[in-house]
Amino acid sequence: MPKDFLEGANRVDYMTDILIDAMDLKKVYKTKNIEYVALRGVTLKVNKGEFLVIAGPSGSGKTTLLDLLGLLDSPSAGKIIIDGIDVTNFDEDERAIFRRRYIGFVFQSYNLITYLTVLENVELALAAIGIPVWKRREKAEEILSMIPGMLELKNKKPNELSGGQQQRVAIARALANDPKILLADEPTANLDSKTGEAIVELMKKLNEEKKVTIIMATHDPDMMRYADRIVYIRDGLVEKEVIQNE
Hints:
Belongs to the ABC transporter superfamily. With 246 residues, the protein is of the alpha/beta class. It has one domain (5-243): P-loop containing nucleotide triphosphate hydrolases (Rossmann fold). Helices cover 31% and strands 28% of the residues. Strands 6-7-8-3-9-10 form a 6-stranded mixed beta sheet, with helices on both faces.
């Protein structure tokens, strides 16, 4: 597969302000004896530069939807177009290349490598996208400098940091590939309310200054107020949408 296969393959004519168009997404998980329907037909458009919150109770389908939009999994039915590219039927290798090109991930568990320093964790993410050795340190320090207070902690290891600091490192790592889309799944769930608010404020700043499109799943109403739009899902279906900050 050529490295530049995304340049021409699967492209469709598309409205320039729509970054993600998810159409009638369904996801069914099957085991030998059980069939569980996680999404029942979700249709969703996301604008370039939008800060979108996916809200709903546990088990509503928030994480499943983020997994599909982030190409961590494939839908059982429906279609996903991202930046004019139909990604619905990408195989595993194609999805991996697309993720490296377009998407950064932030999870509620920070997933940092405990024996590496802050700087080395970010460098590792840069290595994964093919940044040459000689350039990684400079680029990692540049990314950390974007996040207040992180550059001075570059030689610390994760167990020497607070939860909020670890999540900031996770955000820095997610920015390694200069993503167009940042997906955050309950990023404040393991943090106290003050620290959680600081994390979402940081993501809002990145959204406004770097024009990163952010999709955040949360059930915390205090974190929803930073969103441009909230999409509520329940039982695998869109229940309602609320537009904010107009």
